[in-house]
Amino acid sequence: MPEATHVGSGKVRELYALDDERLLLVASDRISTFDVVLPTEIPDKGRVLTGLSAFWFARTSSIVPNHLLRLRDDGRSTECRGLEMLPLECVVRGYITGSGWKDYQATGATSGHALPTGLRESDRLPAPIFTPSTKAQEGHDENIDLAEAAELVGDGRLAELERISLDLYRSASEHALMHGVIIADTKFEFGVDGSGQIVLGDEALTPDSSRFWPADEYEPGRSQPSFDKQYVRDYCESLGWDKTYPGPELPADVVDGTRARYVEVFERLTDIGFDEYLADPDAVLR
Question: What is the pLDDT of residue 71?
Fold first, then answer.
């Protein structure tokens, strides 16, 4: 990539500077679980993340502007506006699961939100809640309450982030449910542009940043089958792995099963065949 300068690596993405204002994000096929990048890749995973993010960016721009400038023909690279990213993971939960469920079991609340008594694992919440977390450079993100989040970004900006995050979640959840998918929870990352405007960045509403459940198999009171990397988490936990580097190799059936889940949720949500996307990535923008 001679026209670009490599400026950083994430768990999944490589980041390049194209010029002073534009970045190139390249989504690899790496997969991480429990904040450890595993040695086995999932074929086409990066293209699913890129295509789904672009699909949602195109459909939520009336709620909040985003960083996408254009998709490249490889289906895994996006040219984006450079932003000053905010030090907060903006998590929205519509159902009680994951770390929110663990918090609720211990305290009856999560991220400062007192919740009704008697909730079962995977129950739908009375209304979606905004539960921010820290954006850890190393190790695990940590759930924090709104007061702690306000210390990071300020009261006014936090209120705006909460409103935007909830609006994004509600809009996407309605679309997803019509396509047989429950978005149990999701996280957004935002930055600000040169004028101080909040802009949606990174990825949005993908199997890496969300819990996607098949609606026809939903049954509260237990963990749910999913279209996200929970399949890989479950396999890794079954090994008794201590969740530290290096992670375990994934067997072929777990790789194939994970790829199939990523591709299926892409096709359900976009109504576009994955092969069609590979042939013409801009199909998700139309």
Answer: 97
